[in-house]
Amino acid sequence: MRFGLLGPLQIFDGDRILAPPGPAKHRAVLAALLLGAGQVVTLDRLVAVVWGENPPASAEPVLRVYVSALRRLVGAETIRTAPGGYLIAVTPDQVDAHRFDRMVERARRSRDAGRAAEAADELRTALGLWRGPALADVDSGELRRTHAVRLEELRLSATEERVDLDLALGRHGEVVGELRALVAAHPLRERAWGQLVLALHRGGRRSEALGAYQDVRRLLVEELGLEPGPELRAAHDRVLAGEGPEPGARTREAPHETPPDIADFTGRAQVLSWITGETPAAGGAPVHLVLHGPAGSGKSAVAVRAATLLGARFPGGRLYAALRAGDRPVGAGAVLEDLLRSLGCPEGAVPAGIEDRVRLYRSMTATRRLLVVLDDAADESQVRPLLPTGPGCLTLVTSRSPLYGLEASRAFELGVLDLAESVAMLAGVAGEPRVRAEPQAARRIAELCGGLPLALRIAGSRLARRPGWTLEHLAGRLEDERVRLDELAAGDLAVRSSLGLGYRGLAEEEQRLLRRLGALSAPDVAPWAAAAVFGGLRVDRILEELAGTGLLQSRGLDDAGQERYGRHDLTRLYAAERLAEEEGTAARVLAVLAREVLERVRRARALLLPAEPGTGRTVAHTAGQSVAVETTHLRESARWLAAERGFLVAAVADFHRAGLAEAAWRLAFYLTPFFELRAHHEDWYATNRIGREAARLAGHRHGEALLLRALGDLYRIEGRLDDAARALQAALSHFRDLADGAEEARARYRLGLVLIAQDRPAEAERSLAECLAAFEAAGDARGRADALRSLGSVRRAEDLLAAGLDAYRELGDPRGEAAALRELALLHLDRRRLPAARDCAERALRADRRLGDRLPEASSLVLLARVARAEGVPEAARTTVEEALSIFKEYGDRRGAAHALLVLAGADLDIDEIDGAFAAISSATEGFDILGDQRGSAEAAELMREARRRRGLWT
Question: By its UniProt entry, which SMART domains does this protein fall under (predicted)?
């Protein structure tokens, strides 16, 4: 395991980057331990690191909680308790800050021994460890004072020492860009200015060298009232005296044309590691790497950073070519002319024909080890003639396209920055103190910029140039989607213009599809949805072309086997702008999509729940239709809904915003069985609220009533029984006013389920009996099956439950069968008919697994565990209920988990695992308390009394 402090805190497990501890105080504790690696860090020191001079009275016990959380992250054996404090069992070489110190010391020894080239390379490698400001996301004034300031000063000193060595080695051409960036970031650092003056002078740029000296002299006089110091004046005197390069320096320079590295470059450790790993050895075959991704993702910055880090490995030099001028690609012939001149081809000797230029370029690169950066490539044909042929050469190509057709190339898709990297980049541009002062606003800006480096740089630049703005102010301006692209512009940098370059280069049909996708707020789409907004035609090829431009990104195959295509949120906003300007409102596009969406979801719902949505009518099934085929269709339906879940949830809001009220409420209603089956309660709440609002505003009382009924289901499942009753009473009122007896009966049936949960069996029985009569009179087979099962459960009547099971079979509803089998299993278990109970529970479990219904599967497992306990096999019960518990936890079902924990506790008591029983009961009690489940709490209390009695017997 390795740790990074030279930038945002990072933890590496092999090549995998682990998520750093989230809470700021946890990061501060870990950073303090790492900075003292191999030594005991006292409690007093850690308290000062976390809370400064005013720690709370509970500081030490709270600190122990923080250390416990860190142990779960990095391993209990890694952080050890020691007398008076803690020790982290890592070597200094596992922490980049310590490694940096040691590498700088080693480089200085090499320098003092006269090994200048070796020292320069060692310093360059050491500086490559930095990913941003030291301890960038560690909020501790104590650590900043005692460590970060020292590390940053050492970084600057090491940079200047390495530049001195490069100047002595005659590498003045390659350090000019770096020195300009350095003096821009640290304008009062005289040593760096002196180095810049000398580097310009030795490169034959005497007037620029004198201009640089005048710039720094003016700055020092105006800012500090001081004249330049002796070192800077000496550099000026050498320029005036016309002194040439130092003895031993190279007189002929290899080209070093890559732009200067960005001082506030942030993150991208993974891609830089990939480039380094792919770099060819000297004498090896040339390597061509493609960095591709959406506009503004920082491809060029990564290529320049990589070229800077790797430059010393390429003695033949570094070439750079911009392959786009404005919104048009530059021809390969023109690029070759510039590259040949950079390689030393005399004026007038560049061949006229492109074939001759290619041959000469290949000849001139055949014996040199070069690094070539080809920036913003349009396609493969533009790149092929520009690839160097020399052994050990490396070509870095940036493009919005993956350039799949580029032979023998390897590609890396550059995505957006994660939240921590985004905030670090914002801090690097806007200033770390401002970001540290408003961390929540900084995170919000990062989220609104979608992690896009271009957008973050613009946002940071606007803040840097407006010291009176707070971050909260800018975040508020970015919140409004209608003007976000307006806000993300600074000088010649603008997200809109960057996206516009790509859009204008598209074919007409590609432009049309991209802008129509702007009507959708979903993070990604499948081809069927794209085809619907496009006009019903197949769009697979167009989607692939858009993915090739970087304006869409292929997200791979989803659970239903469909390829999904996503886009950056700022691309969506740009596409919506183009749609509004070129085609008008998005409502027309969404109206076409709504018809397709509703039909597909209605069919999927009909398979999940064998009745027409919103009615009591049963779907007819073919007489010879097999259970296996039916089960397959059910599973495929659930899989398709799972794959489309994010898209469909977003579509409800899209339809509502577009004024398509009926589409909004119907889609929200159609999705409820799936949300119930998979426990997607947040999505259920969100779509139900939007659907009810749409129905109410449009006067669709039937739709509002259906969604109120669904809301009652949700409240009942979550144990909010009073809320469930109120929602169902409101639905009943609507159905009575609409004289819709069938739906009134279905709402009353659900009210009966609430009465059961409220432990009001007599009222529940009356309500369910009324519903059963109403369903039978109306010929509603689905309602009849549900009522028979629930009434049989209340009355503990085996005949009613068996009749319900038969009714579900006639409907072709395996989910209903499984539910009825679970009720029968409970009845048999209560009556100690254990073989029958096990048979019913196992049949239910097999059905659940065929259907892929995980939560019902967990319920069946709990039943089987209870049966195993009754059979006197507690070990089997524990194994079975632990499997159920993992499913409940996976789906966030607290109620199911709490009841499963009680079964686990009972099994522990059966085998005298008293401590395990106490732990399970305590966890169950906590869950019931959160849910407000008094009955569950009472069961837990009774079991706790038994556990205490057992402990008393043992002690």
Answer: BTAD, TPR, Trans_reg_C
Of 157, 195, 156, the closest CA to residue 176 belongs to: 195
DSSP E strands, 14-120? 16-18, 41-42, 79-82, 85-88
Residue 2 near residue 12, CB atoms below 8 Å? yes
Same fold for the pair 269-413 and 700-802? no
Question: Which H/E stretch holds residue 489?
Answer: strand 489-490
Q: In what side-by-side order are the strands of the sheet with 318-322?
A: 318-322, 371-377, 394-399, 287-292, 409-413
Residue type, 955: T
Phi, psi of 563 (to 5 degrees): -75, 135
Q: Which amino acid is at 406?
A: L
CATH class name, domain 845-954: mainly alpha
User: What is the residue-wise DSSP string for 203-253?
Assistant: TT-HHHHHHHHHHHHHHHHHHHS----HHHHHHHHHHHHT--PPTT--SSP
- Cα–Cα distance for residue pair 630/742, rounded to 1 Å: 27
**Topology adopted by domain 269-413:** Rossmann fold (3.40.50)
- pLDDT exceeds 70 at position 356: yes
Closest C-alpha to 785, from 765, 767, 766, 811: 811
Residue 881 and residue 859: Cα distance in Å, rounded?
A: 9
* Phi, psi for 584 (deg, rounded to 5): 95, -155
Domain 173-245 coded CATH 3.40.718.10: no
Half-sphere CA count of 538, side-chain side, radius 13 A: 2
Residue 589 has pLDDT above 90, yes or no: yes
CB 137 within 8 A of CB 420: yes
Q: How far apart are CA 770 and CA 777, in angstroms?
A: 11
> What dihedral do alpha carbons 789, 793, 796, 800 form, nearest 10°?
-10
In this predicted structure, what is the pLDDT of residue 631?
58
Tokens coding 400: 């919005």
At residue 79, the 3 state secondary structure works out as strand
H helix intervals, 555-626: 569-582, 587-608
The verdict on pTM exceeding 0.85 is no
On the question of pLDDT at 706 being above 90, the answer is yes
Pinpoint the alpha helices (H) of 758-853: 761-778, 781-795, 798-811, 814-830, 834-851
Could you tell me if 349 and 365 are in contact, meaning their C-beta atoms sit under 8 angstroms apart?
no
Q: Give the residue extent of every domain in the chain.
A: 1-171, 173-245, 269-413, 441-520+533-543+563-578, 586-611+627-695, 700-802, 845-954
CA distance 883 to 845: 13
Please say if the pLDDT value at position 359 is more than 70.
yes
Q: Could you give the 3-state DSSP secondary structure of residue 450?
A: coil
Distance, CA of 857 to CA of 848 (rounded, Å) = 5
Alpha carbon separation from 101 to 95, 153, 302 (Å, rounded): 10, 12, 25
**Nearest C-alpha neighbor of 377 from the set 353, 345, 350, 411:** 411
Tokens of 243: 């002194």
Spell out where 48-84 has E strands. Answer: 79-82
Closest by alpha carbon to 734, among 708, 707, 705? 705
The answer to whether the CB of 373 falls within 8 A of the CB of 396 is yes
Residue 628 reports pLDDT greater than 60: no
Higher pLDDT, 129 or 283: 129
The class level of CATH for 700-802 reads: mainly alpha
Q: Tokens 């509970």 appear where? A: 58
Which residues does 772 contact at the CB level (< 8 Å), separation at least 6?
784, 787, 788, 791
So what's the pLDDT on residue 823? 95
- Asked: is 1-171 a CATH 3.10.129.10 domain? The reply is no
Q: What is the 3-state secondary structure (H, E, C) of 281-307?
A: CCCCCCEEEEEECCCCCCHHHHHHHHH
Q: Environment class of residue 16 by beta-carbon count within 10 Å: exposed (0-12), middle (13-18) or buried (19+)?
A: exposed
- Parallel/antiparallel/unpaired status of strands 328-329 and 324-325: antiparallel
Q: Locate 82 and state its tokens.
A: 């020691």
Angle made by CA atoms 643, 647, 650, in degrees to the nearest 5: 145
